[in-house]
Amino acid sequence: MLYSILFKSDYLLFSKKSVPLQCVFHSIRFKVNKGWSKALLLFYFIPLTFTIKQVFLLIQKPRPIFNRSQQNPSDRIIR
Question: Membrane-spanning regions, if any (predicted)?
Answer without folding.
Answer: 39-59
